[in-house]
Amino acid sequence: AQSVTQLDSHVSVSEGTPVLLRCNYSSSYSPSLFWYVQHPNKGLQLLLKYTSAATLVKGINGFEAEFKKSETSFHLTKPSAHMSDAAEYFCVVSGRKTSYDKVIFGPGTSLSVIP
Amino acid sequence: AAGVIQSPRHLIKEKRETATLKCYPIPRHDTVYWYQQGPGQDPQFLISFYEKMQSDKGSIPDRFSAQQFSDYHSELNMSSLELGDSALYFCASSFNTLQGEGGNEQFFGPGTRLTVL
After folding, report:
1. Does residue B39 belong to the interface with chain A, where contact is any CB pair within 8 Å?
2. Inter-residue contact A34 to B84 (CB < 8 Å)
3. What percent of chain B has pLDDT over 70?
4. Closest residue on chain A to B34 (Cα)
5. Is residue B93 within 8 Å of B4, Cβ to Cβ?
6. Domain ranges of chain B
7. Which of B67, B30, B25, B26 is nearest to B46 (CA)?
8. Contacts of B86 (CB under 8 A, 6+ apart)
9. Which residues have C-beta within 8 Å of that of residue B57, sequence separation ≥ 6?
10. Superfamily for the A2-93+107-114 domain
11. Within 10 A of B43 (CB to CB), how many other CB atoms are there?
12. For A30, what's the count of Cα atoms within 13 Å in the CB-facing half-sphere?
């Protein structure tokens, strides 16, 4: 069984300050982990992914995440927030079955960036 | 690069009507997934198809059905529409490239926004 917890439903930061969006997962095997971003009334865009290679993953727009197996965490960070980062962020855990991937979305974290 | 195509992008229906949503996966992708995202909600998995056969089923109502055709496009058929069916419906496709237990990246379409009046 798999599950995803995003510890904060809403995060607010000032422009130019660091961003930390937290994600913890539970899985009975070694899953892949993803972060997606969704701007208002838009589709889902992949920010970055972990698929059992390097534990520190760099994504688009200056975001990165570190996979920590001992803590079952995959927190998303960015050194300096930009106004355009304001959006909804989803952490996703995915495990491979025989002929499909079992995908679980976290509940999402809404990021606000204050000018 | 080709992306996942969904049509229509917007659809307005009355209660009790039917609707058909279409999804065209990325060429050579073998798996299609359907998700429903209500207002302020995270995407909920509905159903998936691998090589034209249903592979997994989530929280899809009995009023909904789906299939994948020989050209790999998929259609989600929704009958007896209810107000609560108003949502953004995403289709995603993937191709299995990984050897381990982790799932593959899913490529999402832009979504179909369904409004039921």
Report:
1. no
2. no
3. 98
4. A103
5. yes
6. 5-96+106-111
7. B67
8. B38, B39, B114, B115, B116
9. B46, B47, B48
10. Immunoglobulins (2.60.40.10)
11. 26
12. 13
Q: Where are the domains of chain A?
A: 2-93+107-114
Q: Could you report the per-residue pLDDT of A4-58, keeping only the tens digit for each? A: 999 999 999 999 999 999 999 998 888 899 999 999 888 899 999 998 778 899 9
Q: Which two tokens stand for residue A57?
A: 């993953």
Phi then psi for residue B62, to 5 deg, are: -65, -20
pLDDT band at B2 (very low <50, low <70, confident <90, very high): confident
A99:B51 CB<8 A: yes
Q: Token pair for residue B52?
A: 């034209």
Burial of A1-17, coded b for 16+ CB within 10 Å and e otherwise, reads ebebebeeeebebeeee
Question: 3-class SS at B73?
Answer: coil
Contact yes or no for A90/A108 (Cβ under 8 A): yes
* Nearest CB partner across the interface for B56, out of A31, A32, A102: A102
Asked whether the beta carbons of B67 and B22 are under 8 A apart, the reply is no
Q: Which of A30, A44, A105 sits opposite B100 (nearest CB)?
A: A30
Cα–Cα distance, B57 to B34 (Å, whole number): 10
**Is 2.60.40.10 the CATH classification of the domain at B5-96+106-111?**
yes
User: How far from B37 is each of A30, A47, B59, B85, B111, CA to CA, in Å?
Assistant: 27, 19, 12, 10, 10
The answer to whether B45 contacts chain A (CB < 8 Å) is yes
